[in-house]
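Dear support,

Our group has been running a series of protein-ligand predictions, and this particular one with flavin-adenine dinucleotide is the one our PI (initials K.S.) wants archived with full inputs and outputs. We had some confusion internally about which version of the output was final, so please treat the block below as the authoritative record. The input we submitted was:
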Amino acid sequence: MLPEQTDVLVVGAGPTGLAVAVTLAAHGVRATVVDGLAEPPVTSRAAVVHAGTLEVLDRIGVSAPLAARGLPATRFSVRDRDRVLVTVPFDRLPSRYPYALLVSQAETEAVLAERLTALGGRVLRPYRLTGLDLDAAGATARFAGGETVRARWVVGADGMHSAVRDLAGIDFGGPADDPGESFLLADVRVDSDLPRDQVSLFLGRQGPLVWAPLPDGTVRLVATVPDAPREPRARHFQALLDERGPARRPDRVTELLWGSRFRIHHRIAGTYRSGPVLLAGDAAHVHSPAGGQGMNLGLRDAVALGDTLAAVLAGRPDQLLDGYAAARRPLAEEVVGFADRLTRLATVPPAVRPLRNLLFRVVAGLPPVRRKIAVRLAGFEPDRAVIRR
Ligand SMILES: Cc1cc2nc3c(=O)[nH]c(=O)nc-3n(C[C@H](O)[C@H](O)[C@H](O)COP(=O)(O)OP(=O)(O)OC[C@H]3O[C@@H](n4cnc5c(N)ncnc54)[C@H](O)[C@@H]3O)c2cc1C
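Confirmed final output from the archive:
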């Protein structure tokens, strides 16, 4: 049952909301966490947790159990069909987790939920937020079943279509008439010669194709496409592999386990804080999944916000929360810029491709550049911490 009042109401129990709640619980703050769904989703969705994120999650006791459920990829290779343009090593990252961890989002959420339970918290379901009255001392949240909760702080971790963001009147940018970039993704069984210790990114003329091994022996494929079919089938992914993947020994899709399509704009909320309302994760930023950064950025937002909220509840000035907003928003801008550059690199005209490949091999072949790409992909953020432990 919902409490009448709470210090922190976290709306949304996806990876971001769960990580905010775990961080607060680790500081001894019991947040009220609600989700509109009766059960957590079981689909795989975001499939990679990077080293920079694992370092941050380590502080809340989540990385070791998560690593035990995933598959470590020690390298990331950029390819043009059969040609490897550059191999980025993760195994030399300055981290206890020198790899990209391939793991289904459902597992990531399960590990976070277990950690929350271990710290004495839980998610209250199904409670869908429908109204928010804001005032100087906090907010009154209204739910679809008629319940209300009075909260000092409200965290909008309710995803791309965030009700918290809309009810607080925070702008989400992006052109209203542009349908956004179109993606196809799937988990498939595939007969392939590609190495399973690395994530491969093919810079296909028609757009990028990501090939990532998953722990259960399947492979995650993600590609930009001009127009995605309503019901993706194995043949659509076979066509993508034939068009963009290895040419000498082509991959063969033997089974489609799960496929999906979506369109996405690159959008960032006008602000991450408006009075008692704070945004994190997809509620604050959405962008292409091509660089595998979306959920990672949200998880790192979440720990930063949990730390900051706990400090404010312990008596530090609430302007610290403006610091959270000011520090995190530029990081989303960087990730959006990175995803844009990746797509532009993939889709250069055919005449320019040999030059692009040559430049890529020369520039990205330099060890300092390779290290920089590894650090960037891994999500190690510049130290803009508002709060220190
Ligand atoms: C099909 C698919 C594939 C994806 N693939 C990738 C990928 O390969 N790589 C990648 O980085 N990202 C991927 N993503 C995006 C990734 O899943 C998100 O970045 C991530 O889930 C964001 O986490 P979040 O907790 O911020 O939001 P969400 O996971 O969206 O969680 C929001 C939660 O809020 C709840 N909620 C919403 N509205 C309300 C309300 N009014 N009241 C109460 N609760 C509410 C929802 O039920 C949900 O549980 C994919 C997403 C989808 C849908």
